[in-house]
Amino acid sequence: MKKWNVLIALSFVLVLCACGGQPEEENPEIPAGGDASVSTDWTFDVRAKQSGEMLEVEMDVINQSDEQQTLVFPSSQEYELVLKNEEGEEVFRYSENHMFAQVIVERQFEPGEQIELQKERIPVGDLPSGHYTLTAELAVSKETIEAQGDDNPFVQTVEVEIE
């Protein structure tokens, strides 16, 4: 019985010693999630125009900096589009009818590089005429957005007139 008491006491001491160590200092060479070097030199340009019964949306992402930059996406979804009517009711959401791979995607941009994202066509033939608001957002990781500071250059809202 004394043997068990000694083993339990030794185990307890080992656990205390293992848990009581000082935390290691962060190594600046190892990224700790998110890239703090991402600059705020991004432009996200959104254009929308009606063509018949479709609203055609074009989006460009431009690295305005003098350095290579990387955008990190937590899934294969690169953007979200939301169309709202004058009452603020959502009438279209891009992701509603799509499936996205749950994989981290990184896109590197050279200095000054501009990438045109896939053109999207939103059906508007069944919508009543009027003023609408289209919000386009790059679906980048939270860490990428936080690295931008207070301003999120990855969200743009445009007013659209549906006829």
Automatic annotation (TrEMBL):
A Pfam family (short name) is: BsuPI
Chain segments annotated as coiled-coil in the UniProt record:
none
InterPro entries given in the database record: Intracell_prot_inh_BsuPI, IPI
Q: Point out the signal peptide segment.
A: 1-18
Q: Which residues form the Intracellular proteinase inhibitor BsuPI domain?
A: 42-142
Give the highest taxon in the source lineage: Bacteria
Look up keyword Cytoplasm and say if it applies. no
**Keywords on this record?**
Signal
Protein known as: Intracellular proteinase inhibitor BsuPI domain-containing protein
Q: Which organism is it from?
A: Shouchella clausii (Alkalihalobacillus clausii)
**Higher taxonomy:** Bacteria, Bacillati, Bacillota, Bacilli, Bacillales
